UniProtKB/TrEMBL annotation, chains A, B:
Protein name per UniProt: Acid phosphatase 1
Organism taxonomic ancestry: Eukaryota, Viridiplantae, Streptophyta, Embryophyta, Tracheophyta
Family statement: Belongs to the APS1/VSP family.
Keywords: Glycoprotein, Signal, Storage protein
Record InterPro entries: Acid_phosphat_B-like, Acid_phosphatase_pln, APS1/VSP, HAD-like_sf, HAD_sf
SUPFAM superfamilies listed in its UniProt record: HAD-like
Top-level taxon of origin: Eukaryota
Length: 260, 260
């Protein structure tokens, strides 16, 4: 009788005890999560501000992604948000093309595309180089470009074909060096790009210029040859800014590196 | 005896039962959260892409914030992230000012500031108008501006004073109408701004021009008067783009409205 009562008591204590145990564990988990959130939110805000100010062209000429923001940039550049942001930019170009341009159809309507991170993605390269967190090593980057393994940015490939089908001449103006021409052409064709009118790469004579000036010189040449540049699509402000400009310009997101 | 055994059995069942009940509830909560996350993430990606493409100047001339994104823009414009993004832009101006400019100190060094959402915040007004989700009603907005109750953007106020203390002349170029001059001056002084060299507002003669052209005309006038414009700070691309430009321009975030 006594042993039974004791057993009942023990079971009662166990029941009540287990409920309180659960309660305490839940409280501890909650407290821990809240703590982690606060500190990780501060870093997230800081790194997101860095990224946004790069996109706004307020932060310029950076050599590397700040060490503490490598994970944030990696997360963005490999996210559905990066794809969504790029696709929305492409969608806005489509919208613009439906209303913008009284195309003359005389072979002088032109559109300019940047190559890297506009037509082709360099993410597979930067994935091995801390997503911009390591200072760019030109020879290692060029070795990768020589392998012609850069994938297409699918949304840009679709736009490229739509613009070409409108009879607009497409000019690719890239800061890649002339020595990479055959590898670049192979890469572009392998992933589905063909039918461009010009592919401008940097010759030795262009290397004394900053990239923005070099790209302006190319646009000047096109304008002097009677082309009407309806638009520019690029991931760097240096592909878009300066004179002569285009009727509209479109900036794709890219916070892994800065080319001036 | 039998009753005791029965009681022991009941307590055992209760103990085991309570554990399984907890387990099931936790599983249900987890499943529900995952479901909600997927759908809300899609809308979040969509609205964040809209906002980013506004900041990149890929989306232009919008009348209202898309209805489905009002909550997202409200969340951003009232967030620590908006403050962090703005403060980082201001911090980059400070950095630029330490190295950019061989100030002549001849009274011809100049800096241009936009007024709304650069020096003063219109968030208290847009808070009552769906954060840009309602088409702007000029007379209701001007009535609010007449009340001179716009708060300062603290980080810009600090920068304003630092630039002034360097002996750089500050010019405020705003798309507010000339009829709002006294209310604008009262508001600026009330919140701590003073000592600017010029406050340019839109006269009747400027109303045939788009805001960007009007602001370019003002910069032309400054340049013709011998001023060196070291920088422009504004929240709209129309405050920053066009010729003559400044040595550097800085864009503050604002996705509530678009002024062309």
């Amino acid at each position: 009788m006594a042993t039974n009562s004791a057993l009942i008591l023990v079971l009662l204590v166990l029941c009540i005890g287990s409920v309180f145990a659960d309660w305490n564990i839940l409280k501890q988990i909650k407290r821990k999560n809240e703590g982690d959130e606060t500190s990780s939110n501060n870093l997230k805000n800081y790194c997101e501000s860095w990224r946004i100010n790069v996109e706004l062209n307020n932060i310029r000429e950076f050599d590397v992604v700040p060490h503490e923001c490598i994970d944030h940039i990696k997360k963005y550049m490999t996210s559905a948000q990066y794809i969504a942001d790029s696709e929305r930019a492409i969608e806005e170009i489509r919208l613009y093309l439906t209303s913008c341009c009284s195309l003359h159809g005389d072979g002088k309507d032109a559109w300019i595309f940047d190559v890297d991170d506009t037509l082709l993605s360099t993410i597979p390269y930067y994935k091995k180089h801390a997503y911009g967190g390591e200072k760019v090593n030109a020879s290692s980057l060029e070795a990768w470009m020589k392998s012609s393994k850069a994938p297409a940015l699918e949304h840009t490939l679709n736009l490229f074909n739509e613009i070409k089908n409108k009879g607009v001449k497409i000019f690719l103006v890239s800061s890649r060096r002339e020595t990479l021409r055959s590898n670049t052409v192979d890469n572009l064709i392998d992933v589905g790009y063909h039918g461009w009118t010009g592919l401008q790469l940097r010759g030795l004579e262009d290397e004394h210029m900053k990239v923005q000036q070099y790209k302006c010189e190319e646009r000047k040449r096109l304008v002097n040859n009677g082309y009407r540049i309806w638009g520019i699509t690029g991931d760097q402000w240096s592909s878009i800014e300066g004179l002569p400009t285009a009727k509209r310009t479109f900036k794709l997101p890219n916070s892994m590196y800065y080319i001036s």
